[in-house]
Amino acid sequence: MLSVAGAMAQSTEDTLVVAEIEETAVALTPNEARAGRGFSSDVTFVPRGQWIFGGTASYSTHKNDNYKLLVIDNIDSEGYTVGVSPMIAYAINKNMAIGVRFGYDRSLLALDNASVSVSGNDFNVDYFHRIKHSYTGTIFWRPYIPLGYTNRFAVFAEVQLSLSGGQTKSVAENGVIAGMQNYNGSYSKSFGASIALQPGIVAFVTDNTALELSIGVFGIGVDRVTQIKNQVESGDYLSSDMNFKLNFLSVGFGVSFYL
């Protein structure tokens, strides 16, 4: 009888412990439940009130003299591409920052000669010049997740809202009319807006200097282009897109200073 009573008492005690555990689990607040996922950390990677400055810059040129590329022969061209993108952010909370980023890109393509031969048909381009420049303004929110218990490495998931605009001018030969060379010229203006998610990783190389690498994985955007040809004809182009994949055209690498 004593053993049976002891077993019943033990069973009752185990039931009460399980009930207390279940009650504790149910009593978790939303913030406590989110903290249990491991996205919050006691490690301070970016303290509240810190300013962050950084950006990227790129420049490239090319020049071809009677160059051949696949089925394109006799390529004579030159051009350049330059881009700058400064950034400033402020940590509104521990491991969380908001900021703005501005971008400017300019490119020139001067193609003086190229020929393509396909199935006995020859196509020639004797003159085509194009210059393009674009502007981008971005507002972003960036939470940091420190890796382990060190404050040197962290991952982030940057949410971006961007507005962009640009202009393109181009001119091309269009045969000979009445003994004179004829040219076609066009001028276009563009405007776009997008929302994107761009995760990345940041690593401090000194106490205040860090390297950043990021890549786009999600984006929704809309673009509108208005074109005027020879100051007479006009046309509009409207496009929208949504993607959820790695966007290797949106890879960013830069240097940031945490002051």
Short description:
This protein has 259 residues and is mostly beta strands. The chain is built from two helices and nine strands, in the order ααβββββββββ. A hairpin with a 2-residue loop joins β3 and β4 (121-125).
Sheet of most strands? 8 strands, antiparallel, barrel
Q: Order of helices and strands, N to C?
A: HHEEEEEEEEE
How much strand content do the residues show?
A: over 45%
As laid out across the biggest beta sheet, the strand order is 1-2-3-5-6-7-8-9
- Indicate the overall shape: elongated
Which fold name corresponds to the CATH topology of the largest domain? Porin
- Per DSSP E runs of 2 or more residues, the count of β-strands stands at 9
pLDDT averaged residue by residue: 81
Rg on CA atoms, Å: 30 Å
Give the structural class: mainly beta
Distance between the ends: 74 Å
Which ranges are low-confidence, i.e. pLDDT below 50, for 5 or more consecutive residues?
Answer: 1-9
- Count of runs of 4 or more consecutive helical residues: 2
CATH class of the largest domain: Mainly Beta
Total number of distinct structural domains: 2
Q: In the CATH hierarchy, what is the architecture of the largest domain at level 2?
A: Beta Barrel
